[in-house]
Design brief:
The complex is a heterodimer of chains A (588) and B (98).
Chain A: E1 3-6, E2 8-11, E3 14-21, H1 37-66, H2 68-81, H3 84-97, H4 101-117, H5 122-125, H6 127-142, E4 157-161, H7 166-170, E5 177-182, H8 190-198, E6 202-204, H9 209-212, E7 218-222, E8 227-230, H10 234-255, E9 263-264, E10 270-277, H11 281-288, E11 294-298, H12 312-326, E12 331-334, H13 361-367, H14 369-382, E13 388-392, H15 398-418, E14 428-432, H16 435-439, H17 441-447, E15 450-453, H18 455-463, H19 481-497, E16 500-503, H20 511-519, E17 524-527, H21 532-539, H22 544-555, H23 560-574
Parallel strand pairs in A: 3-4, 4-5, 5-6, 10-11, 10-17, 11-12, 12-13, 13-14, 14-15, 15-16, 16-17
Antiparallel strand pairs in A: 1-8, 2-6, 3-7, 7-8, 9-10
Helix pairs in contact in A: 1-2, 1-6, 2-6, 3-4, 4-6, 12-14, 14-15, 17-19, 20-21, 20-22, 20-23
Chain B: E1 2-3, E2 10-17, H1 26-36, E3 42-47, E4 50-53, H2 57-61, E5 70-76, H3 80-92
Antiparallel strand pairs in B: 1-2, 2-5, 3-4, 3-5
The chains are: A alpha/beta (588), B alpha+beta (98).
C-alpha cells in the first residue's frame, strides 16, 4: 500500500529512484590468532595504501567541485591515516600478540577515542568522528566489505539516512544521488545547504524513514512539497513522472535563451528578479536564468563542516568570487545566520531547548565581536569591487538594527584608518522575518536602505509553527491572513519611505504567489536560480493593475482557505490545463 | 639544554602556553606534526600528566589543550634545541588563527 510521509522540503525538485539506506553501522570485528605477522602487516600496508588513494581522490574531487575549504576534511583524514606512531602501535600489537590486524586496529583506535571522549570540550571530542571515519575506511579494505560511503556510490539512488555527516555530504556524487531524505536536519543544516547548492531534491525531518524504506525499492521524493512516497501506486508514479518531464522540458526550453533585464507585466511594470545563492557557482546559474544580481547570498556555508573559523582573508576571497561572478550586478550579502548550535565545533557546547528562538544570527554575531568583525571587514573590503549591500538577519527591531549598524560603522572606521579601500556608502538593510520587526517596520524604514522579507521564518514565527515538527508542519501556511497582512504592512512601510522591499523566502520563487506579492507593492523577488524562468513567465501573464486589485480583494478575505482557493483560481486562469490543485513542477 | 654524559643525547625542554582561541584542535595539531617531522629529534608534549609524541596527530588530539593551557615540550636528539625553537614559534604565532 502506498505510504505518504510528510517532511520538510529543503531543496526543490522531484526524484523517482531506488532507495539506498546509508547508515553508519559498526563493524563486526573478527578476532583470531595468526601465524605469520609479516603477512598480516602486508595486509595492513595494502589497506592503508588503498585508503590513502581514496582520500587523495576525494580530496581532489571535492576541491574541484566545492573548493579547498570543503576538501579540508579529507586532508585532515589523510593526516590521521599517515600517523606513524598510531600505525606502529597497531603493528606492534600484531607482532606481540600475534593477533589479526583488524583486532589490533580496533583496540588501538578505541584507546584513542576513549581518551578523547574524556575531554571536557566538545570540539576536542568531535575529532572522535574523524578517527572513526578513517578507521572505518581502513577496516572496510581489510574486511573486503563494500564501504558504505556516499562518495563511492556506483548507481543512481535516493539516499535515505538517519543523519548525514559533513564528510558524507561533502563527498556525495551529484550525478548519482537523485534525492536525499533524512530523519534529522533542518533548512539550515549542512546537508540541506549542500543539497540546494547541488540542486539535488531533499526532504528532512522524516521520522524513522530509514527503518520504513526498503533498500532497492523505488520511491518518490518531492523536495518542493516535502513529500516522500513509499510503494507508490502506478497512478502516483505517472503523475510524478509527468511532473518531472514537464519540469525538465521547461528547463530545457529556457536553457537556450539568455533572458536579460527585469520581468515585465503585461502593462509594462518592471519586476526585478534576483538569485538566492550559497556557492559562487550558483551565480552563473542565476545570471543565465536572467537574474539581476544576487538578492540573498547566504554566508553560512563558509562556516559549516569545518573545525575552525574562516578568517577575514578567506571570507574576502569568497565574497570577491561571487562579486566577480555577478558581473557588475548587485550582491546582497547576508551576515552569518546560524547560531551556537551549528558552530559547536569551535565554541563552548550550547544546549538550547529552542534554537529557533535562541542564540543565533544577529544576536550571536553581536555577542561575538571577533567573528562579526572579521565578516564585516571582509564584506567591506569586497565592496570596493562591486555593488555590494549588507543585510542583517533576524533583526527584531530598531535598537538591534542600530547596534549592528553602529558596529559596522566602527569596523568601517578601522578600515579607513588602516587606509583600506571600501565603498563608503554601502547600503545596509534588514531581513524582516520576526513579527516585532514587522510591527516596527515604519521605524526601521527610516534607517534601513532596504528590506528583504524572509517569508519562511516570518511564517514560522508568526504562526508559532516549527516546520520540522511533523505534528504541526501542516499548520505552516503562507496563505494565512495574518501572514499576508504582515507582508502588506512591511511593503507599505518601505514604499512610504521610498526604500526597496524585496521578498526572498520560498513564496518569492513560487509562481502561485507572484501576482499577490506584486499587487501588494513588491518590486523585487529573490529566489533559487532554478525558479526564475517560471516566475518570469508568471509575471509576463499578469497586469500590475489587475494584481493590485487582486491583492486588495485578498486583504479583505477572512480565511486562509479562501485566499488559497483564489490563488489557485488565478493560477488556473493564467495557465489553463496545468495541474489545478498543486504546482509540484515549480520550485521555490 | 642538557647533555646526558653517558649517551651524548641532547635534551631541550620548555614550558609553553597555548594562546590561540581554539586550543590544540585538529588544524594546529596537524601543524605541530608537520613541524616536528622536520627534525630528527623526538618531540614530546606533556600536559596534565599525559605525555604524547608530537609527531602523532592522534596523540595530540587526545591532549585536549584549550586556550590558556600550560604545556611542557620536551625534545631529545641531535637537533633538540632547533626543534624546541620551531615548536615554540608555532605556538607563539597562535597557529595563524585570524
Amino acid at each position: 500500500m502506498e505510504i505518504r510521509l510528510q517532511g520538510l522540503g529543503v531543496s526543490p525538485g522531484i526524484a523517482i529512484a531506488p532507495v539506498m539506506i546509508h547508515a553508519r553501522g559498526r563493524w563486526h570485528v573478527p578476532v583470531y590468532d595468526i601465524a605469520d605477522p609479516a603477512a598480516e602487516l602486508d595486509r595492513f600496508q595494502d589497506a592503508l595504501e588503498s585508503a590513502r588513494e581514496d582520500l587523495l581522490r576525494l580530496y581532489a574531487q571535492t576541491t574541484a567541485t566545492l573548493g579547498s575549504g570543503h576538501a579540508a576534511i579529507f586532508q585532515a583524514h589523510l593526516t590521521i591515516l599517515e600517523d606513524e606512531v598510531f600505525r606502529n602501535e597497531v603493528a606492534e600489537m600484531v607482532q606481540k600478540q600475534r593477533c589479526n590486524v583488524e583486532h589490533a586496529l580496533d583496540r588501538v583506535s578505541r584507546q584513542y577515542m576513549d581518551r578523547m571522549g574524556l575531554l571536557a570540550e566538545a570540539h576536542f571530542q568531535e575529532r572522535h568522528a574523524d578517527i572513526l571515519d578513517v578507521v572505518d575506511r581502513v577496516m572496510s579494505r581489510l574486511l573486503s566489505v563494500q564501504p558504505r560511503r556516499l562518495a563511492d556510490m556506483d548507481q543512481p539512488a535516493i539516499v535515505v539516512a538517519p543523519d548525514l555527516s559533513p564528510s558524507d555530504t561533502v563527498g556525495l556524487n551529484r550525478n548519482l544521488v537523485r534525492a536525499i531524505v533524512v530523519e534529522a536536519g533542518s533548512v539550515t543544516s549542512h546537508s540541506a545547504i549542500l543539497a540546494r547548492a547541488l540542486e539535488i531534491p531533499a526532504v528532512m525531518g522524516v521520522a524513522s524513514i530509514s527503518a520504513k524504506a526498503i533498500p532497492g525499492a523505488v520511491i518518490v521524493v518531492d523536495g518542493t512539497e516535502g513529500m516522500v512516497i513509499l510503494n507508490p501506486e502506478p497512478d502516483t508514479l505517472r503523475h510524478y513522472e509527468e511532473a518531472m518531464e514537464r519540469f525538465r522540458r521547461r528547463q530545457a526550453a529556457y536553457a537556450g535563451e539568455t533572458v536579460r533585464g527585469p520581468a515585465l507585466t503585461t502593462d509594462g511594470q518592471a519586476i526585478t528578479l534576483q538569485a538566492n545563492i550559497e556557492l559562487p557557482a550558483e551565480v552563473a546559474h542565476g545570471l543565465r536564468a536572467g537574474a539581476q544580481g544576487v538578492g540573498l547570498f547566504r554566508t553560512e556555508y563558509l562556516f559549516l563542516g569545518r573545525d575552525d573559523l574562516p578568517g577575514e582573508q578567506e571570507q574576502f576571497e569568497a565574497y570577491l568570487e561571487v562579486i566577480r561572478a555577478a558581473d557588475g550586478e548587485p550582491v546582497t550579502i547576508r551576515t552569518l545566520d546560524i547560531g551556537g548550535d551549528k558552530l559547536a565545533a569551535y565554541l563552548q557546547p550550547l544546549h538550547e531547548a529552542n534554537p529557533q528562538m535562541g542564540w543565533r544570527a544577529i544576536r550571536f554575531c553581536l555577542a561575538h565581536p571577533d567573528i562579526f568583525r572579521a565578516q564585516l571587514r571582509a564584506i567591506l573590503r569586497a565592496s570596493a569591487f562591486g555593488a555590494v549591500r549588507v543585510m542583517f538577519p533576524l533583526v527584531t527591531g530598531p535598537d538591534e538594527f542600530r547596534r549592528a549598524r553602529a558596529f559596522l560603522g566602527r569596523v568601517a572606521e578601522e578600515l579607513r584608518q588602516e587606509g583600506v579601500t571600501f565603498s563608503p556608502d554601502i547600503p545596509v538593510g534588514a531581513m524582516i522575518e520576526v513579527p516585532s520587526a514587522v510591527m516596527t517596520a515604519d521605524i526601521l524604514a527610516r534607517e534601513c536602505h532596504f528590506f528583504s522579507i524572509g517569508t519562511n521564518d516570518l511564517i514560522q514565527y508568526s504562526l508559532a509553527v516549527d516546520r520540522v515538527n511533523e505534528k504541526i508542519a501542516h499548520l505552516y501556511d503562507p496563505c494565512h491572513p495574518g501572514v499576508i497582512r504582515m507582508i502588506a504592512r512591511v511593503v507599505n512601510a518601505a514604499n512610504a519611505r521610498g526604500i526597496e522591499c524585496a521578498v526572498c523566502g520560498e513564496m518569492a520563487g513560487d509562481p502561485l504567489y507572484a501576482e499577490l506579492l506584486i499587487g501588494l507593492g513588491v518590486h523585487t523577488l529573490s529566489m533559487a536560480p532554478v525558479a526564475i524562468p517560471f516566475v518570469r513567465e508568471a509575471i509576463s501573464e499578469i497586469s500590475s493593475e489587475g494584481a493590485r486589485q487582486f491583492a486588495m480583494r485578498v486583504l479583505g478575505m477572512d480565511s486562509a482557505d479562501a485566499i488559497r482557493a483564489s490563488l489557485f483560481q488565478r493560477h488556473r486562469e493564467r495557465e489553463p490545463g496545468t495541474a489545478p490543485s498543486r504546482v509540484p513542477e515549480t520550485a521555490p | 639544554m642538557a647533555m646526558h654524559a653517558d649517551s651524548g643525547i641532547m635534551e631541550a625542554r620548555d614550558d609553553i602556553r597555548v594562546i590561540n582561541t581554539l586550543g590544540v584542535h585538529a588544524r594546529p595539531a596537524s601543524m605541530i606534526v608537520e613541524t616536528a617531522l622536520k627534525f630528527q629529534s623526538n618531540v614530546y608534549i606533556q600536559y596534565k600528566g599525559n605525555m604524547v609524541n608530537a609527531k602523532s596527530i592522534m596523540g595530540l588530539l587526545t591532549l585536549g589543550a584549550a586556550q590558556g593551557s600550560q604545556l611542557t615540550v620536551i625534545c631529545t636528539g641531535p637537533d633538540a634545541q632547533d626543534a624546541l625553537e620551531a615548536v615554540r614559534q608555532l605556538f607563539a604565532s597562535g597557529f595563524g588563527e585570524a
